[in-house]
Amino acid sequence: MSNEEKNRITVDIYGHHYTIVGTESKSHIRHVAQLVDEKMREIKRKNPVLDLNKIAVLAAVNTVHDYVKLQEEIEHLKQQLKELKG
Question: Any stretches that span the bilayer, and where are they (predicted)?
Fold first, then answer.
């Protein structure tokens, strides 16, 4: 088990309160929650008939898609750097 101090913070995401516990700063946790809230609201604006579960799943899919694309870009840049050092 880690000795890092855990922060506990209650955040509002899409009108619901969630208690988040983590080792990141409270401001970081708030920022992440704000981004999730914004993504869910963006999806709702574009698809007003969707229910909460579908909005949440689409927000997760969009976020993981962005994450995977960034990971691919990092790997590409690492490869380019390795070739330059070559």
Answer: none
